[in-house]
Amino acid sequence: MDAQLPDLEAGKRFYGELFGWTFEDQPTGTVRALKDGEPVASLAHKTDGRLPTVWTVSFATADAEALCRRILAAGGQVVASPAPFGDLGRTALVTDPEGAVFSLWQPGTAAGFGRRHEPGTFAWVQLYARDTETANTFYGDLFHEALFGEGADPDFGRTPVSEVFAPEMPPHLLVHFAVRDLEAALREVTRLGGRTQVPPFGTSYGTAAVVTDNQGASFALLHR
Fold it and tell me: Average pLDDT in the 200-217 region?
């Protein structure tokens, strides 16, 4: 997962203090975020001010081109076709049929998360959809083995957007970071210049709260 931020240094300060991340510059111009020396995310400078300031989750694939063809056939869109990202891998930007944006990642030297499911790392991604049946069909067909196959360990769920957000909120995927103490983490977000967008609420996968960082990028904090 990665965040495109107007001010990269401000982003490093915010997430470094919130999650205890350290950072490593990459030849691609991005910054790798590390937790205890293992990769957990990346930050990049947003070069086009017209683009939103967001966290984007990437789904791993062995063949980004083939998966893009399947996404188009299933009613999604390809925003940016698969392209090399240095020797780290190949990446593409796509949407589901309702317009929720996500990335594809075909690994090169960067396989993905070095740590997850522990404080300060990726914990879950939730799709907020208007038509949950369309979402079930689209994601189920594309990622059936990962979500439902033998030994699957899914970190993905979906719910109607109106259950948490205003009905006019566009469909989107929301990245969740694990925290040890949700109330303390919310106070830290505020101290660092962010804000609480949706206060704590119960889910089937834990207690979550939706926040924004000091540059407007939304994400969720999750306590299990």
Answer: 97
CATH number of the domain that residue 174 is part of: 3.10.180.10
Does the pLDDT of residue 150 top 90, yes or no?
Answer: no
Q: How many domains does the chain have?
A: 1
Please state the φ and ψ torsions of residue 137, each to the nearest 5 degrees: -65, -45
If you average pLDDT over residues 106-121, what whole number do you get? 95
The bridge status of strand 22-25 relative to strand 55-56 is: unpaired
pLDDT in tens, 47-92: 888 888 999 999 999 999 999 999 999 999 999 999 999 999 999 9
CA–CA separation, 146 and 114 (whole Å): 18
Q: Pseudo-torsion of CA 163, 166, 167, 173, nearest 10°? A: -70
Name the residue range of residue 157's domain: 2-223
